[in-house]
Amino acid sequence: MRTRPDVISHVTLPTGRVAVDEAGYLVDPDSWSREFAVAAGELEGVELTELHWRVIGFMRDYLVEHGIAADARFVLKFLGEQLGLDKEGAKHQLFELFPYGYVKQACKIAGMRQPRAWSTG
After folding, report:
1. CA-CA distances (angstroms) from residue 42 to 20, 46, 86, 113?
2. Predicted structure pTM score
3. Region 52-72: what's the mean pLDDT?
4. How far is it, in rounded angstroms, from Cα 64 to Cα 103?
């Protein structure tokens, strides 16, 4: 659990400024845009492919539908269904897409708030 408030800064995009915490996660997931995803991906060293965008789209839709970020197990199920993979294959694919992990890269790029404490499945 954190004992101090987040340090907030801003990222300037072609469409305007967005607030991010000190780790680069959006403060307000509603301020997410494709431009933010590209910028965050560049900072993370992830060049977004069509499959990245499908995963990000799933995560964004899940957030809108459920009001919370998707746990990694739901993203693994999505990848498995999309690509015809078993659980192990889906996990391998997720780490191919986001080598430093679901929370560290996928959640940040997809515009989720930084999780405080979260099982990644």
Report:
1. 15, 6, 30, 18
2. 0.89
3. 96
4. 18
